[in-house]
Amino acid sequence: MNDATAAKPTEHAGEMLWEFWYPALRSGQLRGRKLVRAMLLDVPLVLGRDAAGQPFALRDVCPHRAFPLSFGPFDGTVVECAYHGWQFDARTGQCRHIPSLTADSKIKCERIHAGSFPCEERDGYVWVFMTNPEGRPAGETDVAVPPVPELPTFSPRYRIAHLAADLPCSVDHGIIGLMDPAHGPFVHQAWWWRTRRSIREKAKQFEPIPNGFRMSPHAPSANSAPYKILKLATGEPSTTTIDFVLPNQRFEQIRAGRYWLSSRTTVTPVRRNLCRLDFVAAWNILPWFPIVPFIIHVLGPRFIRQDTEVIEKQALGLQYEDRMMLVDDADRPARWYFELKAAHLESRRTGQPLRHPIPAPLTLRWRS
Ligand code: FES
Ligand SMILES: [Fe+2]
Q: Phi-psi bin for 72: left (phi > 0), alpha (psi -120 to 50), beta?
């Protein structure tokens, strides 16, 4: 595992991955009959809740003359275009009424559709399945919609928290930043967390999992204070497992006896050069002792701010250079990400199962 340095043209850089679920909004942003705009993978969306409270997502472009449907009105069943009053079923996008048609018109308005996307709520987010840029209605595509992603939880009672930040970068830089172990001592320096002097050699076991890879369960880094606190607070040795799964999800689980903390970070492409980071964590660790809320609500935003600032500064250089050097072993996860993405696109193209780029468990070594 010791290529000294390696430069590799990263195939499919910046390419967005279709036929996956992405979080569009927080659940609480959709209330009553309100129509809310969102953007995912450069597709403008209008979201709302139907009369039964179920969320829906339409392409925010009227098929008549492209007027944004989000200008409404919406009665709980149909979204009406504010330009010429065409009406569309909120759930299917099917056109229900064209006011300008006369009784003898030959136009079959039920054949006309606004783009529509599968839409579901989970873990406090409204998720949209991005079938394709047009949002062709189900039935015209042969895509099977998989279950919406869910944060793993391990007991019936737990607390949950959400954080978010905008990242001004392409999806690839956002994602490889997410699983980059070497920036910690430089970007996330703090006396209570780690300093440059706390750098030491790490060796971690990795293994392939479906559509991704796992840093196998291991004792958390001994040089990070929150993990020490966790051990003191629970009195149990803890283990951490970190998974990356296409297209954009990083899961981390910390288990200590019957206590657990489970988090998921997603980096979602909004536009070509803008992503949104969404972090959700659930835990049952010591509900009467606010150590985890402190870590999540005080340290979490601080960490995310540090990452956001570093991405903003990186964008200054990326205007002039879009190649990158991926240096083993610290950048091996980044390389795996690009290989997984290429393998996924190839499997979509050929219809064959994904050829996983990580053949077997292996150990990576780096200093951080
Ligand atoms: S543009 Fe929507 S009805 Fe004409
Ligand atoms: Fe970071």
A: left
